[in-house]
Design a protein that fits this description.
Blueprint: E1 6-11, E2 14-19, H1 30-45, E3 51-55, E4 60-62, H2 67-70, H3 75-81, H4 87-91, E5 97-101, E6 104-106, H5 108-115, E7 118-122, E8 126-128, H6 142-150, H7 152-161, E9 164-166, H8 167-173, E10 178-180, H9 185-198, H10 201-216, H11 219-232, H12 237-247
Parallel strand pairs: 2-3, 3-5, 4-6, 5-7, 6-8, 7-10
Antiparallel strand pairs: 1-2, 8-9
Helix pairs in contact: 6-7, 10-11
The structure holds ligand LXKY6Z5U.
Family: Belongs to the enoyl-CoA hydratase/isomerase family.
Protein name: enoyl-CoA hydratase
InterPro entries: ClpP/crotonase-like_dom_sf, Enoyl-CoA_hyd/isom_CS, Enoyl-CoA_hydra/iso, Enoyl-CoA_hydra_C
Length: 257
Amino acid sequence: MAYETLLVETRGRVGLVTLNRPQALNALNRQLLDELKGVLAGFAADAGIGAVVITGSEKAFAAGADIKEMQPYGFADAVVEDLAAGWDDVAAFRKPMIAAVSGFALGGGCELAMMCDFIIASETAKFGQPEITLGIIPGMGGTQRLTRALGKAKTMDLVLTGRMMDAAEAERSGLVARVVAPEKLLDEALAAAEKIAGFSLPSTMMAKEAVNRAYETVLSEGMRAERRLFHALFATEDQKEGMAAFVEKRKPAFKHR
Ligand SMILES: CC(C)(O)CC(=O)SCCNC(=O)CCNC(=O)[C@H](O)C(C)(C)COP(=O)(O)OP(=O)(O)OC[C@H]1O[C@@H](n2cnc3c(N)ncnc32)[C@H](O)[C@@H]1OP(=O)(O)O
């Protein structure tokens, strides 16, 4: 299937989505969101996909939501359309998803990267929430996910000044999992995704669900959720296979069930 704003391919068990609006530094417009949601729904339903990588261009992962598209909105339009709410479907994707970020990841671009399970950044990456310079605030989760990732002080600094932080600062602050040379970015992200996709899919999905629970609940509830997910995995064929393979000193052949 052809998309106007995305390039989509599969590499083995990995789905690779490249944001493709170079003329607008991959600004996130309605069409891109619709296309991305469609692609992710396809990957969600495809048993052959075990992980996804989202990337952009060398210059920009994404320079934010499309300002030209938002410019004419009034309050009523934003409320009635529930502007930015459609991105919650992207954040709700249940298989592991990695953001491979080069260049600008600003506003909605930074927020999209944070919807992924972790971020691998090129040394050239620049993160920021510059919405304040436009007379608005982040609307795709920036004030919430950034605070959870960086803490209040750094988030206030970024959100209130609108400044950008480079990859080294983003890694030091805990936003980014790894920083790599620009030419290694995609290979590193695809290798990580391939590795994840080789594990039992129920276990990677439950690992993701359990870690995400830590963001949404108190410790005792999170522990209970983890324990139940942990117990549930003993009902899978892959748990039998994984442990048998360890004992028999061979590689496991997971069937993802
Ligand atoms: C989702 C919410 C609710 O949280 C809100 C948001 O995301 S609001 C958007 C937040 N993002 C920004 O404010 C960043 C806007 N862009 C820039 O500041 C600059 O483009 C830059 C610093 C990223 C790069 O600057 P430069 O290299 O000088 O390139 P430009 O000439 O500025 O851009 C090239 C081209 O892309 C268009 N562009 C860039 N960003 C956006 C955007 N977010 N929306 C729409 N269009 C964008 C820019 O207008 C240029 O196109 P032309 O005007 O030349 O046709």
